[in-house]
Amino acid sequence: MEKYKIIMTGGGTAGHVTPNLALVPELMKENFDIKYIGSKDGIEKDIIKNSSNMEYFGISSGKLRRYFDVKNFSDPFKVVKGMVEAYKIITKEKPDIVFSKGGFVTVPVVIAASIKKIPVVSHESDITPGLANKLAAPFCNKLCVTFSESLKYIKDNKGVYTGTPIRKELFEGSAIKGKRLCGFNDNKPVLFVIGGSLGSKVINETIRSSLKELVVKYNIIHICGKGNFDSSCKDIKGYVQFEYVSEELPHLMNAADYIISRAGANVIFEILALKKPNILIPLSAKVSRGDQVLNARSFKENGYSLVIEDEELTKEKLLEQLEILKNDRNKYISNMRESKGKDGVSNIVAVIMNCVKEKK
């Protein structure tokens, strides 16, 4: 069987890293040697080193911003430096292909690969392409998308509707282990709350202000984000908080009866895959490019989710919507079972293989 080499890249948030890890087992079946390029000190460095045996290369990276910041004047130089560093790595490693999951660290990697005439496949999680993928698109051979609606935003016939890669470990999670990890030993339903890999201040505050009412009806698993642990709540029975989880996440998600989450594409498709009744609280378009608002709208229209807008989130609204979700639980599960979501892992690996074979 012919041996191939792939360099993967993606970073800035866990959502730009974990889908790469979902592809690894299938790529190994296709006899790929896999390396990773990320930033020197980003979240992706720890995730990759803790979750895989991939060799990791760190490069300089400047953040891409849509708003004014004094760092906008210095960060382009970091991007150029990162491109030089990526070029040297790619020259030395001689990959057959580069796969990019997005995030600002990927731009210099994709450009360097293009200069070396190495095929590049990228993946966009959200309905509209992020800034990094917009900048990288001219240098890509193919841009895989999670939502079919995304194809209209991609030029030059590069778009491929593949769905998003879901880690097989997600389906191997044990609800029993998840409850045991949290010390839950009664029959109350489990409410799982996650505000993205970096946490959400407004979700954290709303959940904690509602604990008196919530713990009467639910056991609560709260992923609050790094640095957001609240020691004043640590002794509340039926409430367990984690700053961040990795290997335990499949067990905790499988233990959930209901989920409250931000609306990043990766997490909402994991929720859909597990068919968990859910409330999405998308990050406001006032502080983002609005991708989560569009993701949540799509899930609401398909009958997969209830949605609370970030600006409308209050304790009263949350408790009211949870009651609605609880009453309509079976309807949401039924809608999710009828989902025509694609098997992202096999589809994306097929695109990668086609690009490799076309090059040869």
TrEMBL record:
Q: Where in the cell is it found?
A: Cell membrane
Classification via Gene3D superfamilies:
Glycogen Phosphorylase B (3.40.50.2000)
Catalytic class of the enzyme: transferase
For the biological process aspect of GO, one term held by this record is: carbohydrate metabolic process
Q: E.C. number, please?
A: 2.4.1.227
Pathways involved: Cell wall biogenesis; peptidoglycan biosynthesis
* Annotated family: Belongs to the glycosyltransferase 28 family. MurG subfamily.
Q: What is this protein called?
A: UDP-N-acetylglucosamine--N-acetylmuramyl-(pentapeptide) pyrophosphoryl-undecaprenol N-acetylglucosamine transferase
Question: Top-down, what is the taxonomic lineage of the species of origin?
Answer: Bacteria, Bacillati, Bacillota, Clostridia, Eubacteriales
Q: Which gene encodes it?
A: murG
